[in-house]
Amino acid sequence: MPNIRRQLFKQKLLTALAQRFFQGVIVLAPIGVTIWVVVSLFNWVDNILPNLLNFIFPQQFALVNGQIPKVTGLGFLVAIALVLVVGWLSSLFFVERLMSIFDKILERTPGVKIIYSSVKDFLEAFAGNKKKFDKPVLVCIDAEDIWRIGFITQENCEHLGLKDHVTVYVPHSYAISGISFIIPLSKTKKLPKHINAAEAMKYAISGGVTTVDELTSNKEADVVQTNI
Question: What is the pTM for the complete model shown?
Answer without folding.
Answer: 0.50
